Structures are given as structure tokens and as C-alpha cells.
Amino acid sequence: MKRLLIIVAMVAIATIECQAQERIDELLNRELGGGTTVYRMAVKRDPESGEIIKRVKELTATGNRALAKKFLEAFDAERESADGWEENRNSNGRQITAVWINPKRIYTITATGSTLSVHAQTIYREERDDK
What we know:
By secondary structure, the chain is α+β, with helices and mostly antiparallel strands. Helix content is 31%, strand content 41%. Strand 5 and strand 6 form a beta hairpin.
């Protein structure tokens, strides 16, 4: 019985880990409209296996306060699931960096007035230094 409870707890924790930063990813992946929006994504692969090593997404938007608000709300909603959190506020806006350990994810948002910048980096495995 004890073993069963431990297994159930581990499955629940794994499910929660998989759902972390889900709201932020959903916003990054949807089509964004209004104002000026620039979206970039880069993927680094292992040249031998084709396996994804790292993925970086960047979003910059100006003139869209509603989008900035949605992203800030998404970051705030994910605060409890983050393994690390740093937030800076001043009269100009907010900057938040959230970190998750497995897989390693580092998400940063900077919102100043109607300017929004989101940087999301996922590291699936460390790169090998074969030099």
C-alpha cells in the first residue's frame, strides 16, 4: 500500500512538472495580433542524432498593452510551479525571470509601458564539449 501511494505521488508530481509554464507556452505559440509583434524561434540539434538540444523563443511586441497584461498574468500564474523566481518592479514596469529544472527552462519577461519582451529558453540536455 505504501509503495502504491509513493507511485501515485510520483506520477502526480511528474504531471504537475509537465504542466509548468503551460500558460506562457500557450501564449507564445498562438497567433498574436495588434501592435507591432516580432517572433523568433531557433532550435539547436545534435548533428549526429538530430535530437533537439536547445530551443529558444523570443517575442517582442509594442503597442499592445493587453498582450503584455496576458503574459504578466501567465507568469504570475506559473510562479508556484517555478523552481526559481526573480522579480524586479519599478515605476517603468516589471521584469520577471522564472526557472524550471527538469527540463531546464529559463523564461524572462520585461514589460515596460506598451513594450513587451519575452525570452523562453529550454535546454533538453547539456551540449557536449568534444573539442
